[in-house]
Specification:
This protein is mainly alpha-helical and 365 residues long. The protein folds into 2 domains: 205 residues, no CATH class; 137 residues, no CATH class. Helix content is 50%, strand content 7%. The strands form 3 sheets. A 3-stranded antiparallel sheet has the order 1-5-2. Helix 1 packs parallel to helix 8 and helix 4 packs antiparallel against helix 6.
Length: 365
C-alpha cells in the first residue's frame, strides 16, 4: 500500500501513534508535528519545505516557552539543544518583550538561532519522526534525503535541503487541523507537566498565546483612592503622575489579573522591575496590604473575592498540625490567611525556581 491509498482514519491512527509514543527525551516531535499542521493551513502551496523554514517555527515555539514563560523542557542536566541555542543568543534582559518586538529588534540573533537549529537539531527528529509507525509505508507524512550509517543506526540529513510533504497528508492535516492541533498540545503538556509542577495556565504557555493583562484602568480606579505612595520606593505620587498598575508576581508567570497581586507604582519602579520578581521583602508588604484592604470600604469585597480564589488552589490544602491548631483557634490566624500566605509565597518561590529573575534595581525608601 502507498501513502496515497490511506484513509483519513489510517492517517489519524498513525499520527496519534507518533504523538503518544513514549520513546522520547525532548519535545522536538511535538514541535515538528505542530509545524506540519500550521504549514498545511498556511497560504504556502509548495510541498518542498526547507529546513530553515521549519527552524523558524521551532525558534518561535521555543523562544516563547523559554524566554517568555520559562518552561522547563527536561531535567536540568538534559537541556535540549534548541534551548541551549536560544539561551546563548538571548540574555535575560530581552524578557518580557513580546515575540513581535524581538522580531524587529534582534534580527541578527534570530537568524543565528535559526541557522544553528538547522545544523544541530533536526537529524534525529526528522529521521525518527515516523518510527512509531510499525506498518508500511512508514514515511507517509513527508519524505527527506539522508545519509544512513548502518553501524550506529544514525542518519544525517542534507542540511541544505528540506522535507517533501505528502500532498494527501497535507489535505488530511488541513481538514482535521483543530482536533489534531489539540492532540499535539495535549501530548506536549503531558510531557512537560511533571517538569513544570504548579505553573499556571500551562496550555496557554505551550501554545505561545501572548495575551496581555486585562484592562488595568479599572484596577487603577479601584486602588487609587487607597494609595498615595509607590509600593516599591514609597515615594509619594504627584498630582501630574498617573500611577502604573504592576503585577507583583509577573504576569507572564501568573497569567491572570487579580487584585491580590496588583499594586500601584511610580513609572521608574515599574520600568526597573519590568517582568521580574521583586525582592522577597515586598511579598511580606503585599500580605500586609491585602490584609488591610479586607477592612477598607468599597475595596474589601473584591479583595475577599480575590483571596478566596487564591485559597482554593492546592498549596493551602495540606496544613501542618501547628497551622491546623491556629486555624481552629481563629483568634491568631484563619484558614484563609494561611492559604493566602502560602499561596503567594508558593507562587513567588515557584516562579523563582523556574528562572524568573529577581530585580536588583528596586530599593525601598
Amino acid at each position: 500500500m502507498c501513502a496515497s491509498q490511506l484513509t483519513d482514519k489510517e492517517y489519524h491512527d498513525r499520527f496519534m501513534a507518533i504523538l503518544v509514543d513514549k520513546k522520547k527525551n525532548n519535545t522536538y516531535k511535538f514541535a515538528l508535528a505542530r509545524f506540519l499542521l500550521d504549514y498545511s493551513i498556511s497560504s504556502n502551496k509548495s510541498l518542498k519545505i526547507r529546513y530553515s523554514k521549519i527552524a523558524k517555527s521551532f525558534f518561535k515555539y521555543y523562544w516563547l516557552q523559554e524566554c517568555k514563560s520559562r518552561l522547563r523542557q527536561g531535567p536540568i542536566n538534559q537541556t535540549p539543544e534548541v534551548i541551549t541555542i536560544i539561551r546563548a543568543e538571548f540574555a535575560d534582559d530581552v524578557y518580557p518583550q513580546s515575540y513581535k518586538e524581538i522580531q524587529k529588534k534582534y534580527k541578527k540573533e534570530i537568524k543565528c538561532c535559526i541557522d544553528k537549529i538547522v545544523m544541530n537539531c533536526f537529524d534525529d527528529v526528522i529521521h525518527r519522526f515516523h518510527n512509531s509507525i510499525n506498518v508500511e509505508p512508514k514515511n507517509i507524512f513527508f519524505d527527506y534525503f539522508a545519509i544512513q550509517y548502518p553501524e550506529s543506526g544514525n542518519a544525517r540529513i542534507d542540511k541544505h535541503g528540506g522535507i517533501l510533504l505528502n500532498n494527501d497528508a497535507r489535505s488530511f492535516f488541513r481538514k482535521n487541523y483543530e482536533s489534531l492541533y489539540k492532540s499535539v498540545i495535549l501530548e506536549w503538556i503531558r510531557f512537560l507537566e511533571r517538569k513544570n509542577i504548579g505553573i499556571p495556565y500551562l496550555v496557554q504557555k505551550i501554545e505561545g498565546i501572548e495575551k496581555g493583562p486585562r484592562n488595568q484602568s479599572a484596577f487603577l480606579k479601584k486602588l487609587k483612592p487607597f494609595v498615595d505612595n509607590c509600593f516599591y520606593c514609597n515615594a509619594p505620587f504627584n498630582s501630574k503622575e498617573t500611577p502604573n498598575v504592576d503585577h507583583v508576581i509577573p504576569y507572564d508567570y501568573i497569567n491572570d489579573t487579580d487584585l491580590w497581586n496588583l499594586v500601584l507604582t511610580c513609572r521608574e519602579c515599574n520600568c526597573k522591575k519590568s517582568g521580574s520578581l521583586p525582592p522577597k521583602k515586598f511579598i511580606s508588604d503585599l500580605l500586609t496590604r491585602n490584609k488591610s484592604y479586607i477592612h477598607m470600604g468599597k475595596i474589601n469585597e473584591e479583595m475577599k473575592k480575590s483571596l478566596t480564589k487564591l485559597s482554593y488552589e492546592p498549596y493551602g490544602l495540606i496544613l501542618s498540625q501547628e497551622e491546623q491548631s491556629k486555624s481552629k483557634n481563629g483568634s491568631e490566624i484563619t484558614l484563609e490567611q494561611i492559604c493566602e500566605q502560602r499561596g503567594i509565597y508558593w507562587h513567588y518561590d515557584n516562579a523563582s525556581k523556574h528562572g524568573y529573575q529577581t530585580s536588583k534595581k528596586l530599593v525601598q525608601n
